[in-house]
Amino acid sequence: QVQLVESGGGLVQPGGSLRLSCATSGSIFSIDAMGWYRQPPGKQRDLVALIRSSGSTHYTDSVKGRFTISRDRAKNTVYLQMNSLKPEDTAVYYCYAVSASTYWGQGTQVTVSL
Fold first, then answer.
1. How many CA atoms does the CB half-sphere of 101 hold within 13 Å?
2. What is the 3-state secondary structure (H, E, C) of the chain?
3. Exposed site from 5, 54, 87, 97, fewest CB < 10 Å?
């Protein structure tokens, strides 16, 4: 059974940094893309960033220049480096992977507050 296990969330002050990690367990054949969504309280889940098998990346406008997505292909692990965090970045962050199916992690809370 495939599982995505996230880590790295927590509480950080505005302007601070966090690094999220998402490791896959089980066997996923030929991952097409991995990435991160986030869901703020009371709002819908939206795409934050993704990285394709080609290495190309995509970011939502609000995080461009502040967040960086990267991937360790050998470990099937994806990372999200988040810098210059703002209170509006507060959300539950979900990792996902697209292969023959789409897999989701359980979510990790990121809170940006004084």
1. 8
2. CCEEEEECCEEECCCCCEEEEEEEECCCCCCCEEEEEEECCCCCCEEEEEEECCCCEEECHHHCCCEEEEEECCCCEEEEEECCCCHHHCEEEEEEEECCCEEEECCEEEEECC
3. 54
Token pair listed for 93? 């962050």
Name the token pair of 100: 């023959």
Both tokens of 80, joined, read 């999200």
Angle at the Cα of 54 from the Cα atoms of 74 and 1, rounded to 5 degrees: 45
Alpha carbon dihedral 101, 108, 84, 43, in 10-degree steps, equals: 80
Rounded Cα gap, residues 35 and 49, in angstroms: 6
Query: How large is the C-alpha radius of gyration of the chain?
Result: 13
